[in-house]
Amino acid sequence: MKLNATIKGLITGLLMVAVAVAFYFNKIDETSPLNYLGYVIFGLGIVWSITSFVKQTRSTQFKDLFQQGFRCVLAATLVLALYTFIYFKLNETEIDAVVQQAKQERLRTAKDRTPAEIETEAQQTRKYYIPFQLSILVFSNLFTGVIVTMATSGALYLRNKNL
Predict the structure, then answer these.
(1) What is the Cβ-side half-sphere exposure of residue 136, based on CA atoms within 13 angstroms?
(2) Which stretches are transmembrane (predicted)?
(3) Burial class (CB within 10 angstroms; exposed 0-12, middle 13-18, buried 19+) of 53
């Protein structure tokens, strides 16, 4: 089977999910620098897609290189979005605890809101929590992926243009 950019993106995404699951079960803190390992895997997957495409086809046109990298980005982002959705659906009690904690804090500090308004805010937060988190994940991964793809594609394009 030939590994194209989409399959490499799926592999990259699955590796990122494996790291996230391992960190979850090992109770690695969310603020730990180890969490950047996911971004390193993401970047390496994109570079792998582009450089292997160049080796296979000898094509060095920027649009071709960018296309390969972006296919990888989309596939990896899709895997991460599915994982995140499943994770939040399986851990709804944790989400409820976060919302309740925020609501209690808001009840203590908000002088301009009634308890009924704060309860409505908490219900709205709970309702939109998963879509909001998914949109942040998708946007940040697409943004990061496009930057890495542009940098890699541009560097290979310029290097081969000057040869």
Answers:
(1) 7
(2) 7-25, 37-57, 69-88, 136-158
(3) buried
The tokens describing 32, both together, are 């730990």
Question: What tens digit of pLDDT does each residue of 35-67 get?
Answer: 899 999 999 999 999 999 999 998 889 999 999
Q: Beta-carbon neighbour count of residue 22 at 10 Å?
A: 12
CA dihedral sign of residues 40, 41, 46, 47:
positive
- Domain limits, the chain: 5-161
Element (DSSP H or E) covering residue 158: helix 115-161
From the number of C-beta atoms within 10 Å of its C-beta (0-12, 13-18, 19+), residue 132 rates as: exposed
What pTM value is reported for the model? 0.86
CA–CA gap between residue 106 and residue 92 (Å, rounded): 21
User: What is the mean predicted confidence (pLDDT) over 9-33?
Assistant: 94
Terminus-to-terminus CA distance in the chain, angstroms? 32
Distance between CA atoms of 160 and 45, rounded to whole angstroms? 21
User: Under a CB-based contact definition with an 8 Å cutoff, are residues 13 and 78 in contact?
Assistant: yes
Q: Taking Cα atoms as reference points, which of 68, 83, 96 lies closest to residue 152?
A: 68
Around Cβ 83, how many Cβ atoms within 10 Å? 18
